[in-house]
Design goal:
about 0% strand
């Protein structure tokens, strides 16, 4: 902090300070704010722009990894729900007697022809 106030035009100091916030303090927001301030002080410093870009890419990668972890934790729950939904429609909680089974088979085997009336006329 003090080094930056003494020599604010040294882009290496800005990068070192931002790196400390990012890696040492694990504070992406502070590192980002510091590099944005550095850009305002030294808008043509290639080193600062490159480090700012790298910081954003690293942060994006962290967010993606966290999201993948969260999605992986939720995946088994979704699979269980899908299996429950499949069982809801596929199996019956009671057994049909012989007459009902016969009716059900007839309905399944002979779908109604929508053109039946047109063909008869």
């Amino acid at each position: 902090g003090r080094s930056l106030s003494i020599n604010p035009t040294d882009d290496r100091l800005w990068v070192l300070a931002a790196n400390w916030y990012y890696e040492g303090d694990k504070n992406v927001s502070s590192a980002r704010a510091l590099l944005q301030r550095a850009i305002r002080v030294l808008p043509f410093s290639q080193r600062i722009w490159v480090q700012y870009f790298k910081l954003e890419l690293l942060y994006r990668e962290q967010v993606i990894q966290r999201l993948q972890i969260l999605l992986d934790e939720e995946k088994p729950k979704e699979e269980e729900e899908t299996e429950e939904e499949e069982n809801e429609g596929g199996s019956l909680p009671f057994k049909l007697d012989a007459k009902e089974k016969g009716k059900q088979r007839e309905e399944e085997e002979e779908p109604e022809d929508p053109l039946k009336e047109v063909k008869e006329h």
